[in-house]
Amino acid sequence: MKPFKKILVPSDFSPYAEEALRTAVDLAVRYDATITIAHAYEPLAYTLPDGYVLLSPQQHADVLTAFSKSLASAKSTALAAGARNVETEQLQGIAASEIVERARAGGFDLIVMGTHGRKGFSHVLLGSVAERVLRHASCPVLVVKVAEQA
Q1: Is residue 3 part of a domain?
Q2: What pLDDT was estimated at residue 146?
Q3: Which listed residue, of 13, 33, 88, 105, carries a Cα 20 to 30 Å from 5's Cα?
């Protein structure tokens, strides 16, 4: 098996993403790989009457600041767990598309991401970012599912 040198870890800061990060750190330690933790922010795109906005410029800046803090926390977690080289990035756009494009453009060897494991109607209604990434990524994708608690 080819060693992984660049691992992309998309994060929505959920427990599922935290589990994926733990898995990515384990792989990064084994292969001396770089981890890039990325959060894809999907701005709301609704048609509103003139003069109406969903977020003020200050609220938008606050949201991006909160994402930066969450990424910094995830980076600290990865470093504390033994990863040697961890970077963070904020992406903006449709999550699955941004993740696939970032992996391609960045020459990543592997994407490690969590999944909510939705089934039935909620899966049909909400879809799955992980599933779309798996279908379109140009590199291997490791999808990590959190084990259900008894």
Answers
A1: no
A2: 79
A3: 13
